[in-house]
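To assess whether ligand presence alters the predicted conformation, the chain was also submitted together with zinc ion. Input:
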Amino acid sequence: MGERNLLSGLIRLHILHHAAHEPIFGLGIIEELGQHGYKLSAGTLYPILHGLEKSGYVSSRTELVAGRQRRLYVITESGKSVLALAKTKVWELFRELFEDELRFSTAGRVDEQGTVELAGTSSSRAAVKAKPRKRKASL
Ligand SMILES: [Zn+2]
């Protein structure tokens, strides 16, 4: 449970990301998240979807699919801006978490439109590498 608590923000971001691209529904999202290694039951997912809707980040409507009512969720304008904000935070976190493993420079940034600017030309990569060495020498 503690693990799910820690990961719940990531799950919400996954959901918002997909709801920004197309209308999503519970079982579809459970499958999609399953492919990323998140095993969610309907009993866990639906409260998350309802919470996102209550916060105004997604809105829902029902549609008749093969004789059954299916609830579809789409991102709202407010959901889009919170997702854009979260993307800048995820970018920063990603850089820090993988600082040592990354073979390319992430000195770039992601803007509110989700555009990623990598500062990763080969010359700037060399510059990024050279900096810490200089700093160490001056200590
Ligand atoms: Zn996904």
